């Protein structure tokens, strides 16, 4: 994104991070942990938060799995699972979050991954039973190592929402996300 932190990009009048957190709360997820990386101070300056637990990954160059490990290490004892959402997916609806949670309730003990058509996406749910494997995941393999581990039960949840496989990685992706305003002459 040309050095701009994705978390504070604008989407429908709110920052990406604010939108993701609000959609999670709308789905009934209230205990939210946010892990910030190299732009942590800038994000905190532009995002007031809403009771989220905020942690900072001092080594974001170690990949997404390093942020997940930090979050899991700070999860409350009562948590039975973690819903891992990405800040660059502000279009994920609260319905997707709640459908994933419902699927986890029906199939606890493993990983729940949304699938749109034939492609797996995010957010995902990680049952507490797989957290130790997440902590062992090699940085170069990341979460893929966990989801393909022979001891992990993975449940795919078919969703009818392309947002689970779409994220904002480039300025062009961002331009395509923001609808063009039409002008009437």
In CATH's first tier, which class applies?
Alpha Beta
- The H-level CATH homologous superfamily, spelled out, is Spore Coat Polysaccharide Biosynthesis Protein SpsA, Chain A
Please give the share of residues in helix.
25-40%
Biggest sheet features: 5 strands, mixed
Give the N-terminus to C-terminus distance in angstroms.
33 Å
Overall geometric form = globular
Quaternary state reads single chain
Q: Uncertain segments of ≥5 residues (pLDDT<50)?
A: 181-185
User: What's the average pLDDT?
Assistant: 92
CATH topology, anyone?
Spore Coat Polysaccharide Biosynthesis Protein SpsA, Chain A
- Quote the beta fraction: 15-25%
Order of helices and strands: EEHEHEHEHEEEHHEH
Kindly describe this structure.
The protein is α/β, with parallel strands linked by helices. It has a single domain, classed as Spore Coat Polysaccharide Biosynthesis Protein SpsA, Chain A (Alpha-Beta Complex), CATH 3.90.550.10. 32% of the residues lie in helices and 18% in strands. The protein is built from seven helices and nine strands; from the N terminus they run ββαβαβαβαβββααβα. The strands form three sheets. Strands 5, 6, 7, 8 and 9 form a five-stranded mixed sheet that branches. Helix 1 packs across helix 4. It is globular, with a radius of gyration of 17 Å. The N and C termini lie far apart (33 Å). The relative contact order is 0.16.
């Amino acid at each position: 994104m040309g050095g701009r932190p994705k978390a504070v990009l604008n989407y429908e009048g709110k920052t990406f991070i604010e939108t993701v957190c609000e959609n999670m709360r709308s789905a009934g997820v209230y205990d939210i942990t946010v892990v910030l990386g190299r732009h942590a101070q800038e994000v905190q300056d532009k995002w007031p938060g809403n009771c989220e637990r905020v942690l900072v990954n001092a080594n974001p160059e170690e990949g997404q799995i390093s942020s997940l490990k930090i979050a899991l290490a700070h999860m409350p004892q009562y948590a039975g699972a973690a819903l891992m959402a990405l800040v660059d997916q502000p279009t994920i609806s609260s319905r997707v979050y709640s459908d994933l949670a419902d699927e986890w309730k029906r199939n606890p003990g493993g990983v729940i991954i949304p699938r749109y058509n034939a492609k797996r996406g995010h957010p995902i749910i990680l049952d507490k039973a797989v957290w130790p494997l997440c902590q062992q995941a090699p940085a170069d393999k990341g979460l893929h190592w966990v989801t393909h581990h022979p001891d992990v039960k993975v449940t795919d949840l078919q969703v009818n929402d392309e947002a689970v496989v779409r994220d904002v990685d480039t300025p062009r992706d961002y331009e395509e996300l923001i609808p063009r305003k039409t002008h009437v002459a």
